[in-house]
Amino acid sequence: MSAGEPVWVPSRSIFLHGHFRPHPLHLDQFPNAKRLVWIRDPIERIWSLVGHLLAIGVGHPHYSILEKLYFDKGITDKENIVYDLIKYKRAESLTHIYTRFFSNVPITDFDFVGSVHRYSESIDRLVGLLDMEIQTEYRNVRNKPGTQIPKRIASLKSKLGDEYDVVNAYL
User: Fold this and answer.
1) Which residue, 26, 45, 67, 107, could crosslink 71 as a Cys pair with Cβ 3.0–4.6 Å?
2) What pLDDT digit, counting tens, does each position of 55-94 carry?
């Protein structure tokens, strides 16, 4: 899907969901489609991603990046890994997801941009856009409510200026 190549979808399908980059050709293939995306604060996204990779281990394709950069050198502390990733701009495939994701189709071309920081409000907008009822669920949540990002990580916001430029208006 990320390359914009045609895919077969059953004719009765209402939704096509996945982790793929938007491509300009998607609307040629699916002219009635609405582009929907959820975003979160870039530092929180990196913090959550590293926690996810630490929790699931070898099965994830991004795990090997952390393995080469950190685990093989005996570095396993989440805070130290996230700090190093952001401060020294290592592995931009992990730290610059938004600039990469929206490189072919800008965020402004999406019909819906939901913010995890304004979840209820975003769900209400999504219900209006889709004209259907949606049951809210809190799945795929790694961080406990109220979990704070360590201050030394939060202080690196300026290192992710390009990421914040993409999503700030929607946070």
Assistant:
1) 67
2) 998 888 899 999 999 999 999 999 999 999 999 999 999 9
Give 2's contacts (C-beta < 8 A, 6+ positions apart). Answer: 20, 21, 23
Count CA within 13 A, CB hemisphere, residue 100: 12
Q: Please give the radius of gyration of the chain, using alpha carbons only, rounded to the nearest integer.
A: 18
In angstroms, how far apart are the furthest CA atoms of the chain?
Answer: 52
Token pair for 160: 């992710």
CA separation for the pair 165, 100 (Å, rounded): 13
The residues pairing with 114 across neighbouring beta strands, listed in sequence order, are 38
pLDDT digits (tens, 9 = 90+) for 91-138: 999 999 999 999 999 999 999 999 999 999 999 999 999 998 888 776
Nearest to 79 by CA among 57, 49, 124, 47: 47
pTM, whole model, 2 decimals?
0.89
Which residues lie across from 37 on neighbouring strands? Answer: 113
What are the start-end ranges of the H helices in the chain? Answer: 26-29, 42-56, 63-69, 78-87, 92-95, 97-101, 119-130, 151-154, 161-167
Q: Which two tokens stand for residue 122?
A: 């975003």
